[in-house]
Amino acid sequence: MPERHAEVPEDYDAIIIGAGIIGACTAYELARRGWRTLNVDRAPAAGYGSTGSSCAIIRTHYSTLDGAAMAYEGFHYWSDWAAYIAVQDERGLAVFRKTGCLVMKTEHNRFLEPICGHMDTLGIPWRPLTPAQIRERLPFYDLRRFGPPRRRDDPAFATASGGDIAGAVLFPDAGYVTDPQLATHNVQRAAEAHGATFRFNAQVVRIDRDTERVRGVVLRSGEALRAAVVVNVAGPHSAKINRMAGVEDGMRVRTRALKQEVAHVPTPPGVDFESDGLVTSDGDIGCYCRPEMGNHILIGSEDPACDEREWVDPDDYDRSFSEQWQTQVCRVAQRIPSLGIPSRAQGVVDLYDVSDDWIPIYDKSDLAGFYMAIGTSGNQFKNAPVAGAMMAELIEACQAGRDHDRDPVSHRLRYLDRSVDIGFYSRRREINPESSFSVLG
Ligand SMILES: Cc1cc2nc3c(=O)[nH]c(=O)nc-3n(C[C@H](O)[C@H](O)[C@H](O)COP(=O)(O)OP(=O)(O)OC[C@H]3O[C@@H](n4cnc5c(N)ncnc54)[C@H](O)[C@@H]3O)c2cc1C
User: For residue 27, which of 37, 88, 91, 343 is within the disulfide window of CB 3.0 to 4.6 Å?
Assistant: First the structure.
């Protein structure tokens, strides 16, 4: 329970800016601990920010051991979703489809040896597949090597680069959540059952602070709301909120918004990818895929080095599809030659909130009472329930006087027999060289 010792009464114990999946999970965990929380979101409902556009892929293969541990913990929450939510939602519960995830071995990922080492350390199952075994699972695949990924204006685009790919690894504990917005609504309902409140169409335009600590937020309507704790979970707007709070100078790792396009294309004739497909990650062509409703294939980019990154102002960017959409579809057409390339682009255009090393920041700030769960870099939907639990523990410890910068709080995972050092996600960390510096985390 929070200590209350304000001279002016506070409206809430904690105000959480953002009601995406991580903001909602943070509220749920704090509310369970007896905190009076308010989530404010400029959008009309929970999960309408980048969460709503998420491909919501749940997978365990991360390039750092801590990243993989958190993802495997997250996998267990999604597998046990009804138990986590523990209330009825009038809209029903989100569904996690456990399809498994097939990852191609490439030179770039060092044939997955380091990642499989992390899997072994953590007891996460994986199985190597030969090209012949991949063909059994995906008979419509062309397994020639095309890598490294290229731009479409490169004369060598779609030219096989010699031999077949080396094989793949199948990670069975993986899949995707069919409706990330509904999942967020589920968490909202769970939090509300513990007294949490949510306000929508409410944009924070100022953070109230004095020299010592945060005091609350001011909304566009002019209304001021007071709380001893304010948490920045504003997704791609995270840097703007940090600037409002005046905390950026105390950060070694920062965040910015990156435009992303996701393509939805019909599956080739004779293939039932919606029922039989699985999540794939294919560094040889720079794309990941998963089944999508209506027997479509969803295609996302793995941000290969040849692609220009489009950093944008989250309040002022072009939400239309660009060349990138077609590039992603043409890349997958190398692997699936029977894939038709539709003339009309369908899918999603939205933003990642990317940190300098593509690893999130789950931390306090230099301003007492101001916290952040940001920089989720296109890969933290799966970890949201874990992030919520970590944030609640961090906030409670720091508000009780712990100096997390000097003496990092650790979080005991609920499913895995291990703890996470929350200091790993510090805003003051050195850039982590083990990171993939891409959406792969
Ligand atoms: C295209 C795409 C694909 C992705 N695919 C995957 C995937 O397959 N697997 C995976 O694990 N992750 C994936 N991610 C990442 C994942 O979706 C995010 O990490 C996660 O949803 C972030 O949740 P959040 O709650 O932090 O942020 P958000 O969902 O962005 O929520 C932030 C909220 O803050 C609100 N806000 C912003 N500014 C203000 C303000 N001033 N006042 C009030 N409210 C404000 C916004 O309206 C928004 O609702 C993907 C992301 C994208 C964009």
Answer: 37
Tell me which long-range contacts 274-278 makes (C-beta under 8 A, separation of at least 24).
277/99, 278/99, 278/100, 278/101, 278/102, 278/137, 278/175
Report which ligand 1 atom has the smallest distance to the Cα of 290. 8
Query: 131-175 pLDDT, tens per residue?
Result: 999 999 999 999 999 999 999 999 999 999 999 999 999 999 999
- Residue 55 tokens, joined: 């491909």
Residue 4 is predicted with a pLDDT of 56
Q: Which residue has the tokens 């399809």?
A: 99
**Residues near ligand 1 (Cβ within 6 A):** 17-23, 40-43, 48-51, 53-57, 203-204, 233-237, 260, 262, 348, 350-352, 376, 378-382
Amino acid symbol at 18 = G
Helix (H, G, I), strand (E, B) or coil at 82: helix
pLDDT at site 8: 62
Please report the pLDDT score of residue 7 as a whole number. Answer: 58
- Which residues have C-beta within 8 Å of that of residue 253, sequence separation ≥ 6? 355, 356, 357, 359, 361, 375, 426, 427, 428, 429, 431
Alpha carbon of 47 to ligand 1 centroid (Å): 8
The atom of ligand 1 lying closest to the CA of 51 is 21
Predicted TM-score (pTM) of this structure = 0.97
Q: Which residues in the chain show pLDDT less than 70?
A: 1, 3-8
